Amino acid sequence: MKIVVKKDYESMSKAASEIFIEAIKVKPDITLGLATGSTPKGMYKELIKVHKEEGLDFSKVKTFNLDEYVGLSHDHLSSYGYYMDNEFFNHINVDRRNIFIPDGKAKDVEKHCREYDEMIINAGGIDLLLLGIGVDGHIAFNEPADALSVKARIVRLAQSTIEVNSRFFNSIEEVPKTAITMGMGSILKSKKIVLLANGVNKSHVIKKLLKQDKVTPKLPVSFLLLHPDVTVIVDELAYNG
Ligand code: GLP
């Protein structure tokens, strides 16, 4: 696992964007795994800038998002589908047919999850995956548990996640209690992984990760220690606390 410490949020975002820009240039039909939340917003801004100013081409890029809240439709202001349009997809030339986000309104969620996994396999797997990290060490919505599932599935959100994510909703009551998440299988089968963390509230979990020499489902991010190509980019606040 490679650790890169950057001075601040802007330089963390820029460093991450450079990895994505280079990868898209090398493989224009790349399959990306994409994250939501506060952390990747700056990186998406950088990619949009390079698209607008230098013509970075997304027309052949395929994207799979990590997760979505159950019960929220794509046009719900707090859904990850809406977030992705707003923060990224509406500002680049990605082909809508190449965008895949779990459907929070799927009638048969189990079938939908199976199909999501199959679509990732049919796309040849994820070439480059972007991850954030929850304060409890979750990646996507793989929350700490006795065992972690390999497959995409519906999960119950940890109370701490509901509390932390309530900032994206009008009230904590509005935060869905369940979500669809990409499984640990698709995450760990990604060819290259970039994990971003910024801010003092992430320093505790980043310190834990950097000290970690065991994999444990109690700290889902610890499974990244088994992966051969993970770059963790953090700002000084997340690194030093
Ligand atoms: C959320 C998402 C994750 C995200 C993480 C960090 O709950 N499910 O995919 O990476 O928690 O979010 P943030 O970047 O807002 O701190």
Structure overview:
With 241 residues, the chain is α/β, with parallel strands linked by helices. It is built from 8 helices and 10 strands. The strands form 2 sheets. A 7-stranded parallel β-sheet has the order 1-10-9-6-2-3-5. It has a 3-stranded antiparallel β-sheet with strand order 4-8-7. The model has no long low-confidence stretch (mean pLDDT 97). The structure holds 2-amino-2-deoxy-6-O-phosphono-alpha-D-glucopyranose. 2-amino-2-deoxy-6-O-phosphono-alpha-D-glucopyranose (GLP) binds next to helix 5.
**Beta-strand level of the residues, as a percent range?**
15-25%
**Largest sheet data:** 7 strands, parallel
Order of helices and strands: EHEHEEHEHEEHEHEHEH
Count of individual beta strands: 10
Strand order of the largest sheet: 1-10-9-6-2-3-5
Question: What is the terminal-to-terminal distance?
Answer: 20 Å
Q: What is the structural class?
A: alpha/beta
Q: Figure out the total of helices.
A: 8
Radius of gyration: 17 Å
Fraction in helix: 25-40%
* Low-pLDDT windows of residues: none
Q: Which hetero ligands occur in this complex? A: 2-amino-2-deoxy-6-O-phosphono-alpha-D-glucopyranose
What best-fitting shape do the alpha-carbon axes yield? globular
Kindly report the average pLDDT value. Answer: 97
Topology:
Layout: E1 2-6, H1 9-26, E2 31-34, H2 41-54, E3 62-65, E4 67-69, H3 80-87, E5 99-100, H4 109-122, E6 128-131, E7 153-156, H5 159-165, E8 178-181, H6 184-188, E9 192-197, H7 203-211, E10 230-235, H8 236-240
Parallel strand pairs: 1-10, 2-3, 2-6, 3-5, 6-9, 9-10
Antiparallel strand pairs: 4-8, 7-8
Helix pairs in contact: 1-2
